[in-house]
Write a structure and sequence with these properties.
With 189 residues, this protein is mainly beta. The chain has one domain. It is 12% helix and 36% strand. The strands form two sheets. It has a five-stranded antiparallel β-sheet, covered by helices on one side. A hairpin with a 3-residue loop joins strand 9 and strand 10. The N and C termini lie far apart (53 Å).
Length: 189
């Protein structure tokens, strides 16, 4: 059933046009936008309470490193995934839990210090966790999320990403679609 959710979202992503234009010169800041969604009916035939093995974190999260700088949250008019969030919300199989965007710095790879959901303006009952942006030779984006209780579902994954590509992070019962780009430098006064 997990692949049904992923397959449906992959199709939805394929139908969404890519954003146009190249980003301005690198400022060391990144514009991140995410949609967190949940299956309306939990998939049958899978143990959703099983702890998923963290992919990419090597089991070491929050090593005491300071989190990256959060410059500001984005307004809805600055976000690219609004149309996709609407389609997910009206598809009937999923419901959108959160749609948010912000501009932040990155930690050095592999520090694994993230921004808490509440710091990003995401307040959903039963949803907790952090978002990670790390820069080394490659740019990495990751999530360590928990949804629900008794048992909580977990999604923990960090991976290399490219600018302006829609990335899908999934658990059989919920998931994240994310896009990251270099932040444009602030306009001069």
């Amino acid at each position: 059933m997990r692949y049904t959710l992923a397959t449906g979202l992959t199709l939805a992503l394929a139908l969404l046009p890519a954003s146009s234009g190249a980003a301005a010169a690198s400022t060391g800041l990144y514009q991140v936008e995410i949609i967190i969604f949940q299956s309306v009916a939990p998939p049958a035939g899978e143990d959703l309470s099983a702890n998923a093995e963290g992919r990419g974190f090597s089991g070491q999260l929050e090593r005491g490193t300071a989190p990256p700088a959060l410059l500001r949250r984005l307004d809805a008019s600055e976000m690219q995934l609004g149309g996709l969030a609407s389609r997910i919300g009206t598809a009937g199989s999923w419901r959108v839990l959160a749609h948010a965007g912000w501009i932040q710095g990155a930690t050095d790879w592999p520090q694994h210090a993230g921004l808490k959901l509440e710091d990003l303006g995401i307040s959903v009952p039963g949803l907790s966790g952090s978002v990670y942006v790390e820069r080394g030779q490659y740019l990495h984006l990751g999530f360590d999320l928990r949804l629900g209780a008794n048992p909580a579902w977990s999604l923990s994954e960090l991976r290399k990403v490219k600018f302006n590509e829609k990335n899908h992070f999934d658990h059989p019962g919920f998931g994240v679609i994310a896009i990251i780009n270099p932040a444009r430098p602030p306009k001069a006064p």
